Amino acid sequence: MVEARNAQTLLPIIEKVCRPGTIIHSDEWAAYRAVKKITGFEHRTVNHSINFVDKITGVHTQNVESLWCQSKQIIKQMKGIRSEQLPSLLNEYIWRSNYRENLKSSLFYLLSVK
Predict the structure, then answer these.
(1) Cys bridge to 54: 8, 46, 86, 114, which one at CB 3.0-4.6 A?
(2) CA of 40: how far to CAs of 13, 19, 34, in Å?
(3) What are the pLDDT digits (tens) for 39-98?
(4) Domain locations along the chain
């Protein structure tokens, strides 16, 4: 979660969490345009005013859009949450998504780690 969705906030995070050589796919949100200025990354975009999947390059943001949509559905089922609970809820949701095949054994592993 970020305090602002501007280039000054997002670019340092991208540089910190992405490995050099990463190919970054995004929509054409104004803050993402500056990603091209960061060396060591390739930036590919999709223009959502034209389509959701670029017909030529195949670039899309559907995975992250789907993740956010599913997260919002959980929040609606809970009849909302306090804003300070959102990071924990998202972390749990992402963890469950990543380990859904072996959820039980993954949980036992986490509990056994000292």
Answers:
(1) 46
(2) 14, 8, 13
(3) 889 999 999 999 999 999 999 999 888 888 988 898 899 888 898 998 898 888 888 888
(4) 1-60, 62-114
Element at 23 (helix H, strand E): strand 23-27
User: Residue 54: what residue type?
Assistant: D
Give the ranges where 5-114 is alpha helix by DSSP (H).
7-17, 62-77, 86-98, 103-112
60 φ/ψ angles, rounded to the nearest 5 degrees: -155, 165
24 and 39 in contact (C-beta within 8 Å)?
no
- Model pTM score: 0.71
Q: Residue 95: name the closest of 110, 80, 83 by CA.
A: 110
C-alpha separations of 28 from 35, 55, 64, 97 in Å:
11, 16, 15, 27
